[in-house]
Amino acid sequence: MKKKILLATTGSPASFGAARVAFEMAKRYDAELLLFHVAGVPKKGFSYQEVSDVRSQEAVSVDEDYMAWVEEELKTTYAKQLEECKNSRILLATGLPHREILRAARSEDVDMIIMGAHSGDSSAVYSKGYPGSTLQRVAKAAKCPVMTVHRESASYMGGFSHIVFATDFSKQSESAFKYALSMAKEFDCEMTLFHALDITSKVLAQSDIEDKLISLRKRLRDVYGPKMGEFKNFEVDVWEGNPYVEIVKIARERMADLIVLAHNTRDLDPEQASMGSTLEQVILRANCPVVSVNRPDKV
Amino acid sequence: MYNFLTGPMVWITFLVVVVGLTYHVVTYIRGLDWRLDRVGYRPNMQFGLKGAARSIFFWLLPWGSHGWRAKPLFTLLFFSFHIGLLFTPIFLEAHNIMLRDSWGIRLPGISTGLADFLSWVVVIGGIFLILRRIAFPEVRILTSAYDYLLIVIAVSPFLTGLIARYNVGDYNFWLIVHIITGHVWLLSLVFTKLNHAVFFFLSRAQLGMDYGIKRGGMKGSQMSW
Amino acid sequence: MPEGTLCNRQPITTDEQLKLTLSDKGGKQYYAEMEQLEVDTDKLWSAIQNTMKSRLKTWLNVCAKCGLCADSCFLYECNGRDPRQVPSAKIHATLGEIVKRKGKVDNAFMRNCMDIAWSWCTCCNRCGQFCPHGIDMGVMFSYLRGLLFSQGFVPWELKIGSGMHRVYKAQMDVTTEDWVDTCEWMADENCEEWPGLEIPVDKEDADIMYTLNAREAKHYPEDIAEAAILFHVAGENWTVPSEGWEQTSLTLFAGDWEGCKQNVLHVYDAIERLRPKRVVGTECGHAHRATVIEGPYWAGREDGQPPRPFLHYVEWLAEMLRTGRIKIDPAKRIKELVTLQDSCNYVRNQGLKNITREIMSYLVEPGYFVEMAPNKEYNYCCGGGGGFNGIGKYRPQRNIALLKKRQQIMDTGAKLVVAPCHNCWDAIRDLEEEYPMGIRWSFLKPLVIKMMIVPDHLKPQDEEGEE
Ligand code: HEM
Ligand code: HEM
Ligand code: SF4
Ligand code: SF4
Ligand code: SF4
User: Fold this and answer.
1) By residue range, what is the domain housing residue C93?
2) Which residue of B78, B149, C137, C405 sits 20 to 30 Å from the alpha carbon of C377, by its own alpha carbon?
3) Which B residues, 139 through 158, put their C-beta within 8 Å of a C-beta on chain C?
4) Whose CA is nearest to atom 30 of ligand 2?
5) How far apart, in whole angstroms, are the C-alpha atoms of residue C294 and residue C286?
6) Given B67, B196, B206, which is nearest C55 (Cβ)?
7) What contacts A62, CB < 8 A, 6 or more positions away?
8) How many structural domains compose chain A?
9) Backbone angles phi and psi of A293, in degrees to 5
10) Which of C129, C134, C300 is facing B66, going by the closest CB pair?
11) Do C170 and C308 fall into the same domain?
């Protein structure tokens, strides 16, 4: 079956990185690319048409003309890519960005969502009161892997050569692992199985830490080793520290160009969302695309 | 003239007032419509009556409702004015003597001093009500000549009664004027907005039933008037 | 031109007419046609004669013109105490005048009435509490809206809103299929975190049938998921109907009484069909008013009660917290100043004032809950009631109307406002947009979910990743 990739874009430079990766991936997998854009967020209590434009923040009323105009804008913005990518469609919606992204992903049954870190968050007040960022809410609820490209420099330029898979041994990490492995096989690249020992919450004696690191390395090998099958090009590592910092550090050190991790729901206290879950912090700091996987469905 | 006004005319006026006000009460109640008003009066009468009683009670109590407490000075004015308006004529010696002479009944009387005092309260109260209508923009916008007329009608028997009582000018002339304004006063209870003497109770009862039935009463939560 | 193609005396009853009206950008043509719309004075007068009985007639006649209602109206206060905003002045300049002229009024007069009925009054009923004669201008304005609607003088959005209800049986174009699919979607999205979570559709004889606001289905289905999670945790045997799930009533705001009746009958039909023991509605004020408080009368139920006991969400939640079926983790209680918005529609109009405070006593660490002043049945309207929030034409007036609530909130010093009413929630959101003051606002559901103790058997059985 042909794969479908949904690119959630704001049409602004913040999502150019995501767009580049999406078009590349579509090419690579010969997948269908859905260029998805939430044109506006409902403004008034029961507005039927008035939305606040995602980019200009202005109140506009949605009708065919407006939608056609938005579509035209998107076509211009991505003219070159669309030229090359024959198998693509533009989808427009109005609503709360995270919900519409999820809705489209569900109704189109896509295999992957690719988005910028801030896709849709611009209309601050209108997404306020609904806890969590767009990214977080998409990552939490999506059934397929969600790839986030924070910076343009974080977008890859071809294949992947080194994947860091960070696990916390949760059930969700199982799915993330499967995905990481399949990517590693697909791109025939190196893979680091990584766990970060969180020492931020309690004070541990150095010797305890050492012991833990050793036992965790063993655990990584025991849990994932047997699942590697034919694939041999991997190593295991456990570092101690603040998880997101360590994940970003090892990715840097190994010159990884993709990080895969589970979006663990335990991370999510929506109120604290702006301060960030591990996932969000990794996305903001990493120099490469980050994939979060939450469900077994699409890996 | 004097004899007519204090004889048959009194009968006529009283009859008109009693019949008129009864008519107002009956038509009002018959005109209540549970569908249009969206209040289930009949099936929930118990709750309704309780709500009605509360709604009237707290508003008859000086400073008894949030509304009265929000305007303490006006409340003072309102209650003194109305107490004077209602008590004085009923318990006045002069009226009671006439009552006894013609119908053979009388109510307990109040001293002349108190009667004078209450009458002055009404007259001065009336003046303040007029000044208030001129002074406050939020009342001025509502006021029409009719509202001044009502105050004049309400106050004039008191003013003329006082004049007669103090023997200023021609007693008999002022007495006749007094009696005429008195009749006008009484008849106005039926034919002008002064009919609020009954409609106050009806309208308050209605809103009280609304609160007592629909707006919380049946949920066991009483409106705090 | 007696009647326009968009602006006319007929309510919208077909999808084509609805789409046509919707496509009129911001109601430009609609309002232009309105300037030509003829007033059917005979119809207007006969409507008044048929429906204006004791209560309203007396209210108009007996008003002492004393002005005691002035200060009670937040719109009077927000608008620089403009005397024209005195409730009595407003109603006598409009409805009073129509009655005085026996319905013989012209187009310009009716348009002015429309402006006043929808942008000078939110039908919050507060003035009625301050009038010594018990005259409730909110009720009268609501009546006036009915007259205006029947003559076609109604704001564009509300014409559409009424049409939405008539065509889609919901305030937004959510079809039965969309709705049922959304339920599946939400169950699916949350079943990993909440094993066994279901959103049962059309289950008969359940203990609870849940009804909601179409906006939740359309834009924010998380709310449905949250409701499901709370029913799940409380162990309720519950269901949602596939038809008759929409509880709101823009027809109420529009003055479309016929439409109101249709709406509420959809819900009552669902109740008769599924026979739940009780019905619970979502955190919405006017929806509750429309279905539970006024609805029975529209539906012709003389006892004024819906077919089954019908609770507002706060009543159900308070019961769960009281009986311990939902327990709050004391460590997670709110420990910052927090205040509560009393919704006119179920506090002033159904006396649920103590229920919400009972809930707050469970959710908030003692000492952190601050009341607005005034509060309970005397609270001011949020500023966006009665349809105000949704009408583009009256946005500027609505923004002024928010100032009262802004002051009230600022005076509490709280940065968190609990607003268990969709409309109030919107108004407070807009408040923060128009006049930023750094506040947050929330429904009850997400707060409770964050704070409650989840029984072990309801947690996902995979905690071994934990160190
Ligand atoms: C309808 C026939 C009425 C008659 C025949 C009547 C007769 C009288 C008489 C004979 C006096 C005594 C004057 C004096 O002291 O020499 C009097 C005084 C008075 N009447 Fe009337 N009256 C009538 C109606 C009313 C009404 C309707 C009111 C008020 C609403 C009223 C209020 C007063 C007052 C306030 C005084 C003077 C009290 C005082 O300062 O002593 N009267 N009236
Ligand atoms: C049972 C009896 C009565 C009750 C409960 C009652 C109640 C009220 C109320 C609630 C008001 C409106 C508030 C205000 O403007 O002060 C009012 C006003 C007024 N009442 Fe009465 N009333 C009664 C009897 C009367 C009578 C018998 C009269 C005179 C004939 C009267 C004369 C007036 C006048 C002139 C006003 C207007 C005051 C103004 O200009 O503001 N009332 N009354
Ligand atoms: S308070 Fe009541 S009687 Fe007085 S002006 Fe207002 S509506 Fe009229
Ligand atoms: S109902 Fe509310 S908004 Fe309308 S006049 Fe009365 S107090 Fe003002
Ligand atoms: S939105 Fe809330 S506060 Fe405002 S009128 Fe409606 S119920 Fe009242």
Assistant:
1) 39-154
2) B78
3) 139-144, 147
4) B154
5) 10
6) B206
7) A39, A40, A49, A50, A51, A94
8) 2
9) -125, 135
10) C129
11) yes
| Spacing, Cα B162 to ligand 1 middle (Å) | 8
* Within-domain flag for A79: yes
Look at strands A190-198 and A258-262 and give their pairing.
Answer: unpaired
Structural domain including A245 reads: 162-293
Cis peptide before A226 (omega within 30 of 0): no
Residues A141 and A8 in one domain: yes
Q: What is the pLDDT of residue C400?
A: 93
Query: At C405, is the pLDDT very low, low, confident or very high (cuts 50, 70, 90)?
Result: very high
- The answer to whether residues C229 and C150 belong to one domain is no
- Give the CATH number for residue C111: 1.10.1060
Question: What's the CA-to-centroid distance between B223 and ligand 5, angstroms?
Answer: 18
My answer on whether A26 and A146 are in the same domain is yes
Residue A234, Cβ neighbours under 10 Å: how many?
18
Could you tell me what percent of chain B has a pLDDT over 90? 79
What CATH number is attached to the domain comprising A176? Answer: 3.40.50.620
Show which residues on chain A lie within 8 Å of chain C, measured between beta carbons. 42, 44-50, 61, 63-64, 95-96, 99, 102, 106, 125-126, 128-131, 141, 168-171, 173, 197-198, 264-265, 269-271, 294-295
Half-sphere exposure of C274 (CA within 13 A, CB side): 30
Task: Tell me the per-residue pLDDT of C222-271, one tens digit each, with 9 for 90 and over.
Answer: 999 999 999 999 999 999 999 999 999 999 999 999 999 999 999 999 99
Domain end, chosen from A154, A178, A213, is at: A154
Judge whether C368 lies within some domain. yes
Report the C-alpha dihedral over residues A98, A100, A103, A108, rounded to 10 degrees. -110
In this structure, are A49 and A169 located in the same domain? Answer: no
**Count of pairs with CB atoms under 8 A, one residue in B, one in C:** 161
Of all atoms in ligand 5, which is nearest to the CA of residue C123? 5
Q: What is the DSSP string of B68-91?
A: HHHSHHHHHHHHHHHHHHHHHHHH
- My answer on whether A56 and A194 are in the same domain is no
Q: How many helices (H) does chain B have, and how many strands (E)?
A: 12, 0
Domain with residue C430: its CATH number is 3.40.50
Task: Indicate if A142 and A189 belong to the same structural domain.
Answer: no
Please check whether residues C308 and C391 belong to one and the same domain.
no
Q: With an 8 Å Cβ cutoff, is B34 touching chain C?
A: yes
Residues C362 and C429 reside in one and the same domain: yes
pLDDT of residue A57: 60
Q: Cβ of A170 and C465 within 8 Å?
A: yes
Residue C2 placed within a domain: no
Residue B161: its pLDDT value, please? 92
Asked if B207 and C128 touch (Cβ cutoff 8 Å), the reply is yes
Instruction: Assess whether the C-beta atom of C141 lies below 6 angstroms from ligand 4.
Output: yes
Angle at the Cα of C104 from the Cα atoms of C103 and C105, rounded to 5 degrees: 100
Each of the 299 residues of chain A gets a pLDDT tens digit; together they read: 568 999 988 777 767 788 888 888 888 888 899 989 888 777 665 556 666 665 566 667 777 778 888 888 888 888 888 888 878 888 888 888 888 999 999 999 999 999 876 644 444 444 444 445 788 788 888 888 998 887 666 555 667 889 999 988 887 788 889 889 988 888 888 899 999 888 777 777 888 888 888 888 889 888 888 888 888 888 888 898 888 888 888 988 888 888 998 876 554 444 444 445 777 778 878 888 888 887 777 76
Give C-chain residues touching B196 at CB under 8 angstroms: 62, 64, 133
- Could you tell me the sign of the dihedral formed by the alpha carbons of A259, A262, A266, A268, in that order? positive
Q: How far is the CA of C434 from the centre of ligand 4 (A)?
A: 23
Calculate mean pLDDT across residues C418-422.
92
- What pLDDT, on the 0 to 100 scale, is given for residue C465? 42
Find, in chain B, the residue whose alpha carbon is nearest to that of C139.
B37
User: pTM score, two decimals?
Assistant: 0.89
- Of C104, C134, C154, the last residue of a domain is C154
Q: How many helices (H) and strands (E) does chain C have?
A: 22, 7
Last residue of a domain, one of A133, A154, A175: A154
**Cβ B115 under 6 angstroms from ligand 1:** yes
Kindly state whether residue C5 falls inside one of the protein's structural domains.
no
Q: Do B138 and C296 touch (CB under 8 A)?
A: no
pLDDT for residue B8: 87
Check pLDDT > 60 for residue C467.
no
Domain assignment of residue C457, yes or no: no
B144 CA from centroid of ligand 1 (Å): 28
Last residue of a domain, one of C92, C123, C154: C154
Residue nearest to ligand 4 atom 4, measured at CA: C121
